[in-house]
Amino acid sequence: MKRMSAIGLGAAIVLLTVPFAGKPVFANIWDAGVTIAENLQKPHMQLDLVGEKQIVTKNNGGKEQVTWEADSKLVVRPGDVVRYSLNGKNDSKRPVKNLVLTQPIPQGTQYVLKSAQADSQVAMQLTYSIDGGRNFVANPTVQVTLANGKVETRPAPAEAYTHVRWHVDQSIIPTQMVKVAYQVKVR
Asked: Which residues have CB under 8 Å from 90's CB, separation 6+?
C-alpha cells in the first residue's frame, strides 16, 4: 500500500510540472495568485499636505506682489495668511472612486472666504462645515436675531467655518494627480 501511494504522489508531481500551454502548471498557479492579489489591492491615494506662508512685498512701481514661502520651520504671527495645499496621486493600479478630501480649519486660525480651490482637470464639489464636521453644505448660513427680534438667515462669517471638503465627481485613474488648496488667517 505504501508503494502505491509513493507512485501516485510521484505521478502527481510529474503531471504538475509538465508544461501546460508553454508554462508549467506551477507557474500558472503562481501567476493566478499574483493576479488575484493585484485585483484585491485596494486603490490608494498618496497625499501630501504643504503649508506656505503668504509674503507680500512691493515692487519698484509700488505695486504689491504676493509670493508663498514653504519651510518646514515656518513661523507665523497673528495676521499672517497660510495656504494649505493637499496634493494627491493615485499610486495604485486601480481607479480610486468616491474620493473625498476633508481638511479642518486649524485652531487659532480662521478660514479666508472664497480661498478654497481645486485642480481644474478634475471635477469636484466644494462644501464647508460650520459645526465641527458633522454637516457639509456649499453655502453655510447662520440665523441672526436682529435688534427688533426678527430672525434672519445670513451667510456664515469666516470665523464660523470649521472644515473644507472636496468631493471628487469622477474616478482618479492610476498615476493621476489631484490638487486642492485653501487659506487661513492666523488669529
From this structure: 43, 44, 45, 46, 96, 172, 173, 174, 175, 176
